[in-house]
Amino acid sequence: QVHLVESGGGLAQPGGSLTLSCAASESIFRIFIMAWYRQAPGQQREMVAMISDSGRTTYAEAVKGRFSVSRDNARDTSSLQMNNLKPEDTAVYYCKFKTTTQENEIRDYWGQGTQVTVSS
Questions:
Q1: pLDDT tens digits, residue range 27-56?
Q2: How far apart (Å, rounded) are the C-alpha atoms in residues 68 and 108?
Q3: Beta strands 114-118 and 10-12, pairing class
Q4: 62: Cβ contacts below 8 Å, ≥ 6 apart
Q5: How many angstroms from the chain centroid is the CA of residue 24?
Q6: What is the C-alpha to C-alpha distance for residues 111 and 102, in angstroms, rounded to an integer?
């Protein structure tokens, strides 16, 4: 069973930066999409950023120009660079990989979540 392990969360001041990383516990045949979601207390989980296997990126309006998603296909990892952080970015951040097996079975994997708190 593949597990996604996230790292890099923590406390940042407004205007500061953090980088989140997500790594798969074992090699995956093909990863279509590497995505990042977040969930603030009392709110629904929302997509923050995603990157396709062709390198195409999509961002939520709230983070455009501040966040940058990347992927390393050789290592099955993704990073989310977060700059100019705001208090409203405070949430638990999750990575998600949409994958396919050699038998063309589509499977989604989620990380366990990492807390990001933006506060002075």
A1: 889 999 999 999 999 999 999 999 999 999
A2: 22
A3: parallel
A4: 88
A5: 12
A6: 22
Q: For residue 43, how many C-alpha atoms fall within 13 Å in the half-sphere facing its CB? A: 14
Strand partners, 1: none
Q: What single DSSP character describes residue 114?
A: E
Name the DSSP letter for residue 83: -
> How much of the chain exceeds pLDDT 70, in percent?
100
Hey, which bits of 1-120 come out as E strands?
4-7, 10-12, 18-24, 30-39, 46-52, 57-59, 67-72, 77-82, 91-100, 106-110, 114-118
Residue 29 tokens, joined: 């045949």
- Do 19 and 116 contact (CB within 8 A), yes or no? no
Say if residues 62 and 46 touch (Cβ distance below 8 Å): no
Q: How far is CA 119 from CA 14, 81, 85, 90, 111, in A?
A: 6, 18, 9, 8, 24
Question: Residue 1 — pLDDT band, cuts 50, 70, 90?
Answer: confident
